[in-house]
Amino acid sequence: MEKGSHSTAAAASTSNPTAFSFISKGWREVRDSADADLRLMKDRANSFKNLAATFDREIENLIQSATPTFSVPAIRQSSEIDFMKKLQPKISEFRRVYSAPEISRKVMEKWGPRAKLGIDLSRIRSAIVAELDETEEEDMLGIMEFNKFRKGRRLRFTEDGQFGDWEPIRALKTRLREFDKKNSSVEIFGGFKNSEFVEKVKSSLKSICKDPQESKEVPPLDVPELLAYLVRQSGPFLDQFGVRRDICDKIVESLCSKRKNQLVLRSLADGEPPTLDSDKINDELDLRIASVLQSTGHCYEGGFWTDFTKHDVSDGKRHVAIVTTASLPWMTGTAVNPLFRAAYLAKSAKQKVTLLVPWLCKSDQELVYLSSLIFSSPEEQENYIRNWLEERTGFEADFKISFYPGKFSKERRSIIPAGDTSQFIPSKDADICILEEPEHLNWYHHGKRWTDKFNHVVGVVHTNYLEYIKREKNGALQAFLVKHINNWVTRAYCHKVLRLSAATQDLPKSVICNVHGVNPKFLKIGGKVAEERELGQQAFSKGAYFLGKMVWAKGYKELIDLLAKHKNDLEGFKLDVYGNGEDAHEVQSTAKRLNLNLNFLKGRDHADDSLHGYKVFINPSVSDVLCTATAEALAMGKFVVCADHPSNEFFRSFPNCLTYKTSEDFVAKVKEAMTKEPQPLTPEQMYNLSWEAATQRFVEYSELDRVLNSEHDPAKVRPNGKIIAKSLSMPNFSEMVDGGLAFAHYCLTGNELLRLCTGAIPGTRDYDKQHCKDLRLLPPQVENPIYGL
């Protein structure tokens, strides 16, 4: 019994050290594990603290960058503020997410021996991008306590389940409060435009839409770009088939959709509103094609019939040459209006002006001018022209007057140029050319192409030739042919065409604008009439009158028809008629046969004193393009009774202009004018009738201001300052077609038989010996068979 108990005690004594050793070893392992856990937690806490400090520095830099260091243009500032408003951080959302009590529990659950510390940055990004309402700040309070056990350490929560006020969280919270105080878009984003982020965005946009010229290698043209260029250059050709220009622009815009997107990106990068128009797309297309051609080394030097050798301004002044089809003392619109245009263009002293008028031999002068006004030399006629002009303008105009050979056509009642008219403008002065009646001047033109010799050619259409031709025998057929010939020559020889009214033929490259004024003498007469009326004096002592060249087409047919139809309605109405012309005898005999109350008198100047006393001017003509006599009558303060016709569109805004649509309406307007008094003209109305206003309109609508101010002709300057030098770098389809038309016209007009068949005066391809004698010219040279040489 003892032996057994002894053995049991011995075993127990032997096992006790083993048990205590095992327990001690277990406690050491627990202690070491706890120490390792605590070290790991400290490392994790330090890592989180460093991350918070880094975030704190970024916020501090953002706050410091809020004040702008320099001023920028308003357009860029506003656009960048709008752009950054979309990225405005919502700090309250960040606080709401990371200050919740649950975050402490989630963080501690992840803090284990194998846990990895991380912050959900996607929530920060969502807080910056998403536009959510700010919420009230919640207290970020937590208590972290570590209670050491006797044989180990254990992590536990307090009863409220939150962390203690940990230093990194407290610092982050403080910084967030400071940042929230400066959360104004004006304070932050006024200077945020200078930040590195915005500059990187801009540089990225610019790199995307980098210009072809800035890149080392220019990419080749793709098929849509080639098709867009072909469609745009084929615009005049497609117009003949009824395809309008706006349709062509839409096609080009759709084909250039890729370039359009790049233009939008470039506009954003430059701080400009992303607005595009067809002109900008066309300019970009030109630049694109020109850059590709330039990269290949190609330079277009013109075709067989194209000459790019233009006038170079060497003396600092531009030269304007005005070529017309008539001259004083022939009192016609194409003689008077170009003369005033030359005077007022030269008055500005910005450019030198030359007026080129036809010279007629003595035999032709007797057919056109009055018998008492026959000139033996060009100098004598030039003195007459200058004296006449100075009497009416009141100033001495400084411009040159030159002459070219011409012959009078009885059938056409007009002067036809003889020889090459362009050669009478020296090459050193061949800069800008104004063709008065371009279709008339070029019907039988056989010489240098105007657009090759001059930098800019403007045509001014004075006469509605189709209306005159329709009145002749086989008029419809002739009008059809003349219409297409006019289109041909104006397109081949002009860069721009101005039509005085819609009564003219619709020509290529044309716009409608009244670029004529009235003689200043008529405005003075109108001012005198207004003064007499203010003093209570009777300004008008006579009734109605009509003035015009006595040919049927100048309104005499319409006048006699109206008076004959309403002879009873206008009983007692008397009309004085002033005029001379080829149809004078026939007109007077017809009026006498119909027993009309018309008093025919010889033609005279509209400013003559004998015409001042008339109150009403009657003008029933519908063949005029823009009746100069109508404008002069309005300037003198008279009533004007005229037809409701496109030629009178400009005058409708004047209260003294009474237009009629029917013959019955004509009777009513005449009676109204005879019983009432005209209104005095306002200063604005007088200015609109003046040559100063007409010259301003001419410079604008003819694009003369752009040409005179351009230093890079024929290049086109983009709004950003870049020059698109396209004329000498690539062919233009429209110019090639125009050149082909000019070459064909040159060949046809060189054949004397074809000239005679189309109504040309015999011997007008070259000037004759009498012209050589009068103008002291050399005999015409034998022409070179190659066009333009």
UniProtKB/TrEMBL annotation:
SUPFAM superfamilies the record matches: UDP-Glycosyltransferase/glycogen phosphorylase (SSF53756)
CDD domains cross-referenced by the UniProt entry: Glycosyltransferase_GTB-type
Residues in Glycosyl transferase family domain copies: 544-678
Subcellular location: Plastid, Chloroplast outer membrane
UniProt-listed Enzyme Commission number(s): 2.4.1.241
PANTHER family membership: DIGALACTOSYLDIACYLGLYCEROL SYNTHASE 1, CHLOROPLASTIC (PTHR46132:SF6), DIGALACTOSYLDIACYLGLYCEROL SYNTHASE 2, CHLOROPLASTIC (PTHR46132)
Name assigned to this protein: digalactosyldiacylglycerol synthase
